[in-house]
Specification:
Layout lengths: L11 E3 L22 E4 L17 H10 E9 L1 E6 L11 H5 L2 E5 L9 H8 L5 E6 L5 H5 L5 E5 H11 L1 E5 L6 E8 L6 H15 L2
Parallel strand pairs: 5-6, 5-7
Antiparallel strand pairs: 1-3, 2-9, 3-9, 4-7, 4-8
Length: 208
Amino acid sequence: MSRTSTSEHTRENPVTTTNETDSNTPSSAPRRGPIAVVGVSALMPGSIDKRGFWAHEGAAGRQVADEFVSQQIDTDTNVCLVSRDHPAVGDQLTLEQYAGLRHIILRAPPGYGPSLIDRELWSHGLKREHAMTVHSFFEFPRIISTTDMIGSVPTRIAKSLAQVHNLRIVPAPIEFEMPVYLTWPQSLHGDPGHRWLREFLTEIYRGL
């Protein structure tokens, strides 16, 4: 079993930009983003900067960095989700069995490279099939419940999805820690009501 951990301490910082990768170029139109977003990073190290935000290059990256604040609020581990009656998955999975299944994958932004899972499999001479790629973990249940695909999902999210959609959780043969970030617009950073909302969302997440 392989375990990769992240030891960033919880802190509140303005987002900074790095020169690690390319990303989508933000539109010049006014942004109308959410008031706060909880995000989990399950990509390879370096896909986010040390303050918890996607790394962007150039003027577009500086624009994004100037507009948001990000705070690490927790860490999570990963598990596997499969259908309740999956014919090939029991209570445990070996690395070889895991690699031999068809996988539903969360789409990563362009330029961020292979995931920790794929890199670990490659180090053992194994490769998994990316059978389907989606944009959100919340698309996993509909597909997993009606196919023989498997999905690797953060533990807290997996527990909620499994309970609602009657799926089965199986320990992951490749386990690692993922930082969890809360991100919000810089313009709301000092607002007392928004500060209360951030604390409330953090409390809810940690209670899951």
